[in-house]
């Protein structure tokens, strides 16, 4: 009995080793073929502290979604895309003339209405304002900057576009929108770019030429919003329209080409950003620290992908493939986290087998009938020995980690068609999925050792002490994994907002004062809260 207890405790007290000292290595170096025998399938080996694949995975999974890009405002992706034929774009202005210069349009009229006015009257006597509705008559080629790239804020949201244009991100130029749009359109003209997609309180399309690709559908003189009584409903109407695209699938009127994605988290493309990110929380990651040579490489890569035409790439649906992984684990990890956090000493013996069952459910497609713990010397009998390892569970981990992309790695024809962007996406997906599976398999194997699994034999009855140690280890592993993934799908109002309220993240420009003068964490690290949908409205500060 003592031997059994010692073996279980030895397994239980095994904790994840400390990650190696902070250093970042090229993404390709730590994202080999997941099915390759050269990969070190060691269940105790954690990802390098500064590996960025999981950040690429999350930012790509969050493209064109308002909620995650409001939470992490500093964008790290530039993605070519298109706005399809028949898309309505809205433009508020001071008259009914079609713009002759580049201008901003909104994907929702609530957004553009905030820019609606009348140049023929002053604000004190204004009666109405002009809103123009355009329709695309051919696909518009656009470039999307992720994050809150339309928010005129300091500390990073506009870094990527300003560095692309001006070689620097000067806080004093955050309001230079006219020069910014003119320079963007001039830069993209010879690359065939029709406009740019950004996000602030909602999504916008910066149209470079209103005589090419769009037609005026209507010019409407609407009731003015300048009166004080109309402003509050207008603000909340804009917040509500932005929330329509808050979660997956996000803003569907823009179609992105992920085979041409450029990521500043790609450490092989922008190695100069590696030291700039060390020891910083994700909130503080910026593109600003990029070196001039790396920026030149990014510009060349961007020009190359924009000039490469449309018939390229492997044909893999990366958006869906990424979403499959999020769908597979988001709710289950949240449930697992809940079970672990709400288990008490009194409920430990009842809850531990339930948690073990949840772990098994997640891994069921990968646990073969022949899977047997190493201490089972003969069928139907258990023989525990000291120093039990987890090697017997490695096939489960390998199957879990490789199933979604195994066909890509094995198909040489498919491999040969992958663009550099797709190889980046593949490496990020492999590494992220591999770590999810590693943690889950370790937790499950620990439960098997302790006799908690319904289908594999182990110790008959674990003591409260052993179960307490297992619970502690499980919590550590689960919490660390969830924090590492940092998926915004888990960021929500708790408890759920009642019917008259919506869940809200502090959104530019609705902070109540000049946001660059604020020192509090409410908007620097935005946290969700419930606000009212209708009058009387909530205070947003």
TrEMBL record:
Signal peptide interval: 1-19
Entry keyword Signal: yes
Keywords carried by this UniProt record: Signal
Record keyword Signal present: yes
Name this protein carries in UniProt: Uncharacterized protein
Record organism: Mycena sanguinolenta
């Amino acid at each position: 009995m003592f031997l059994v207890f010692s073996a279980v405790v030895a397994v239980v007290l095994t904790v994840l080793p400390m990650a190696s000292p902070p250093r970042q290595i090229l993404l390709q170096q730590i994202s080999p073929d997941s099915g390759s025998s050269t990969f070190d399938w060691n269940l105790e080996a954690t990802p390098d502290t500064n590996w960025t694949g999981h950040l690429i995975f999350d930012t790509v999974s969050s493209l064109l979604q308002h909620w995650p890009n409001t939470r992490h405002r500093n964008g790290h992706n530039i993605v070519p895309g298109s706005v399809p034929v028949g898309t309505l774009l809205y433009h508020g202005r001071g008259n009914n003339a079609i713009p002759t210069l580049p201008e901003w349009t909104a994907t929702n009229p609530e957004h553009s209405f905030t820019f609606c006015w009348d140049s023929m009257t002053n604000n004190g006597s204004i009666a109405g304002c002009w809103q123009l509705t355009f329709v695309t008559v051919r696909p518009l080629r656009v470039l999307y900057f992720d994050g809150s790239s339309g928010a005129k804020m300091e500390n990073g949201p506009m870094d990527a576009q300003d560095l692309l244009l001006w070689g620097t991100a000067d806080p004093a130029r955050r309001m230079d929108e006219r020069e910014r749009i003119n320079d963007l359109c001039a830069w993209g003209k010879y690359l065939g770019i029709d406009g740019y997609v950004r996000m602030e309180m909602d999504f916008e399309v910066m149209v470079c030429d209103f005589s090419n690709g769009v037609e005026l559908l209507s010019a409407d003189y609407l009731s003015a919003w300048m009166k004080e009584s109309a402003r509050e409903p207008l603000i909340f109407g804009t917040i509500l329209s932005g929330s329509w695209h808050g979660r997956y699938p996000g803003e569907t009127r823009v179609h992105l080409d992920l085979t041409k994605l450029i990521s500043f988290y790609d450490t092989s493309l922008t190695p100069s950003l590696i030291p700039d990110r060390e020891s910083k929380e994700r909130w503080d990651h910026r593109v600003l620290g990029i070196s001039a040579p790396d920026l030149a490489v990014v510009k060349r890569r961007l020009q190359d992908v924009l000039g490469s035409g449309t018939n390229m790439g492997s044909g893999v649906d990366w958006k869906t493939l990424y979403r499959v992984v999020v769908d597979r684990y988001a709710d289950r990890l949240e449930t697992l986290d809940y079970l672990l956090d709400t288990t008490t000493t009194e409920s430990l013996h009842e809850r531990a087998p339930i948690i073990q069952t949840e772990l098994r459910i997640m891994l069921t497609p990968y646990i073969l009938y022949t899977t047997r713990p190493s201490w089972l010397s003969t069928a139907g009998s258990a023989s525990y020995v000291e120093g039990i390892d987890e090697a017997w569970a490695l096939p489960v981990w390998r199957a879990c980690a490789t199933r979604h992309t195994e066909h890509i790695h094995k198909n040489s024809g498919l491999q040969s068609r992958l663009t550099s962007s797709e190889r980046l996406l593949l490496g990020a997906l492999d590494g992220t999925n591999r770590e999810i599976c590693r943690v889950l398999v370790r937790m499950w194997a620990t439960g098997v050792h302790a006799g908690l699994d319904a289908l594999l034999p182990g110790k008959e009855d674990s003591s409260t002490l052993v179960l307490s140690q297992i619970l502690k280890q499980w919590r550590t592993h689960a919490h660390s994994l969830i924090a590492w993934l940092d998926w915004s799908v888990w960021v929500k109002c708790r408890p759920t907002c009642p019917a008259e309220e919506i869940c809200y993240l502090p959104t530019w420009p609705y902070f109540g004062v000049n946001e660059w003068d604020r020192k509090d964490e409410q908007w620097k690290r935005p946290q969700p809260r419930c606000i009212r949908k209708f009058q009387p409205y909530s205070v947003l500060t």
